[in-house]
Amino acid sequence: MHINDKANTETYLASAQRYDTMKYNRCGESGVLLPAISLGLWHNFGFIDSIQNSRNILRTAFDLGITHFDLANNYGPPYGSAEENFGTIFNKDFKSYRDELFIATKAGYDMWPGPYGNWGSRKYLISSLDQSLKRMKLDYVDIFYHHRPDPNTPLEETMLALADIVRQGKALYIGISNYRPEETKKAASLLKELNVPFILHQARYSLFDRWVEDGLLNTLQDNGVGCIAFSPLAQGMLTDKYLNGIPKGSRAYKNLTYLDKENVNQNIDRIKKLNEIAKSRNQKLSQMAISWLLFQKGISSVLIGASSPVQLKENVASLQNLTFSDEELSIIKKVIS
Ligand SMILES: NC(=O)c1ccc[n+]([C@@H]2O[C@H](COP(=O)([O-])OP(=O)(O)OC[C@H]3O[C@@H](n4cnc5c(N)ncnc54)[C@H](OP(=O)(O)O)[C@@H]3O)[C@@H](O)[C@H]2O)c1
Questions:
Q1: What 3-state DSSP class applies to 336?
Q2: How far apart are CA 69 and CA 45, in angstroms?
Q3: What pLDDT does residue 2 have?
């Protein structure tokens, strides 16, 4: 995939103000600070997308102090293409900033055919990270996640593979994603025995999906592990985008993944009510949804997606108002309960 000629010749110089406004939070009890807002490359970075737009989003993110980029082996489509595009852009724009970046990838979902391209075996995880590093043109990632629990592989095998990945120098830290509280507790205990820096759990968390409040956040705090909240805007529902229907080109319109028109229609009354509360705080709904997450205890970072630099700028401006009155919290609670 090639970046167009004009952009090819244009050298990227990161904004000198990039650390002026972003907030950085300690990740659990580790030494790592994460930006309050991180950028995920699940959508908008595959071969089906404009690489020039992807590049503009990444540049805007870094200029705003977003130092954490989140990938996975199968992001695209097609699988692997988000990592490959990221590698192309990284090589042109970010190579000299490598030590200012905290880059993540994962393995755990379907990636290649046959018995070794999915779930949580040692065979899959080690091969997958080797492939990811090649695609991203990196020597190591800052954090490598097991993307989801595997009910059929002993947890000991998966955790030992993660530990060996750290010992091989291919990842500095370890994370897990989509593990329930009990599974998280066991993983934390194994990784502790293996002396591995397990610092982050990546979990879906938004005003519309609060399952983490039911034990996971407490488990993470008990183990000194941070939480990074993914799909904080419920894939775009918690923005003003769907207030007047389903716009062409939006994620619900494209029907690419778990968000479809039906989800939006089912939630539209709540979206409208939350939008009014956001207005009374002088925020956009997207900004209130992000601020609300950052107001919760134990959230190290909110992991957003964006299809344009404009969205990214709007979302980062949520940092201007991170507090909530008791009254606001109780009205929000009524709407989402
Ligand atoms: N660990 C896991 O299992 C897992 C699963 C899912 C995601 N993730 C990670 O979490 C990241 C974020 O997930 P997500 O993309 O679902 O997050 P999200 O922030 O809830 O949704 C992002 C989408 O919302 C819309 N949007 C964002 N800002 C907007 C704004 N200001 N105004 C209007 N619309 C706006 C855009 O959609 P349009 O295209 O409609 O403009 C954007 O692509 C992923 O990239 C990935 O790194 C991890």
A1: helix
A2: 12
A3: 57
The predicted model gives 328-337 an average pLDDT of 96
DSSP-derived pairing of the beta strands 33-35 and 24-26: antiparallel
> What backbone phi and psi angles, to 5 degrees, belong to 176?
-130, 160
**Structure-block tokens of residue 161:** 């593979």
Is residue 34 predicted with pLDDT exceeding 60?
A: yes
- The atom of ligand 1 lying closest to the CA of 104 is 47
Three-state secondary structure call for residue 301: strand
76 or 1, which is more confident: 76
Q: Distance between CA 228 and CA 35 in Å, rounded? A: 10
18-336: CATH, from 2.60.40.10, 3.30.450.20, 3.10.20.310, 3.20.20.100: 3.20.20.100
Say whether pLDDT at 5 is over 50. no
What is the mean pLDDT of the segment spanning 182-187? 98
Structure confidence at residue 184 (pLDDT): 98
75, 158, 176, 232, 316 from 94: Cα distances, Å: 20, 32, 26, 26, 21
Around ligand 1, the residues with Cβ closer than 6 Å are 40-44, 70, 147, 177-178, 202, 230-236, 239, 241, 250-251, 286, 303-307, 311, 314-315
**Position 9 pLDDT exceeds 70:** no
The residues, any chain, with a CB within 8 Å of residue 218's CB and separated by 6 or more, are 181
The answer to whether 212 and 205 have CB atoms below 8 angstroms apart is: yes
Q: 95 C-alpha to center of ligand 1: Å?
A: 25
Which residues fall within 8 angstroms of residue 53, CB to CB, at 6 or more apart? 44, 307, 308
Radius of gyration of the chain measured on its C-alpha atoms = 19
Which residue is closest in CA terms to ligand 1's atom 27? 306
* Structure tokens, 27: 């990740």
Q: Whose CA is nearest to atom 22 of ligand 1?
A: 305
The rounded distance, in Å, linking the Cα atoms of 13 and 62 is 10
